Structures are given as C-alpha cells and as structure tokens.
Amino acid sequence: AFYPNGKVSAIATFANGRQISDTTFNEDGSINLDIIDFIRDSEFSGGTHGWLDYINKHVHYPASSFNKGIEGTVVVYFVVDEHGKISELKINQSVEPKIDAAAMRVIRKSSGQWYPAIYGGRYVKSYKKQSIVFGSSGRYFIQSTSTSNRCKGLSTDNGFVSTAQFPVCQKFIL
Fold first, then answer.
1. In 3D, which of 78, 54, 76 has the Cα closest to residue 126?
2. DSSP codes joined into one string, 138-171
3. Predicted confidence (pLDDT) at residue 157 exceeds the cutoff of 50
C-alpha cells in the first residue's frame, strides 16, 4: 500500500490467506508505531456492544410519532473520517421527519467516539450504513441483518465491505 506521494504506507505478509505480520510507515518513510493493523474497520470505541449500548441509551423515540403509531426502519449513511469524527450523514430510508431526526441525532452525537478505519496501514475515511428500527412497543433497536443482506444495494465492487461482527456496512475511502 502507498501514500499519495508514492511512498510505502505498509507491508503485510500473508500465509494461507491470513495476515501473519505487517509493518506500517509514516509518510516520511519512518516506521509508524501507532498503527499496528494493515486493514481494520472503523469501530465505535466500545466495540459492537458499546455501540448497541450507546444507541439504546441515547436514541429517543419522539412521543408524537409514537402516539400516532408511526413506526419503521430508518437507514442512515455516514462517514467516519480519519480522526474518528462523523460527517456526511444522509437518510437512505426515511420513516418520517421526527423519527429520521432522532436517528440522525444519535449518530451525529457519536462523533469523536470512533476509531477510524485503517487501510494499507494508514487511517482512511470510511462510509457506514446503520439501520435503526422504531417499533410499536415504544422500543427501538439496531437492525442487524445477515452479512449478505446488510449491504443490500452495495457491493464489494464499489469498495463496500461488511463484516459479520458489526451491524453496519463500510466503504473505505482511499
């Protein structure tokens, strides 16, 4: 993997389809001791369980929407940048404005609590896709679907990657 200036960003060794070692470099060519992964998904600081806890503690089902019986799944796309900050939030699947705003708000407030993705031994932006279901019980939950359906409409051909351990889709931005 290389930096835009053409210098090597990382060297990884694989055996039997698995990475067994890597060395990462800073843009000036010195060894980077801060990054120890060749490729890593961006991840909420508390991991999968921390993300689920965060959503459950911080998302609020708007009372007016609940009282009207409005329910459904909001799907939000967002970017985790090289510093773990959230940007470029976009509703991909809408329920209604107040519920959409609640989903956007909880994701926006997680900014700075993410570990950025690593690709080729350097921090990169990554796209995420998150579903939040608002149901008639007054509860909401993160929709975790099978790996093959999780990135519906997104393929590895355009750089999206999904992983079994995290209920979001991800695309590395190089």
1. 78
2. S-EEE----HHHHTTT--GGGTEEE-TTSSSEEE
3. no
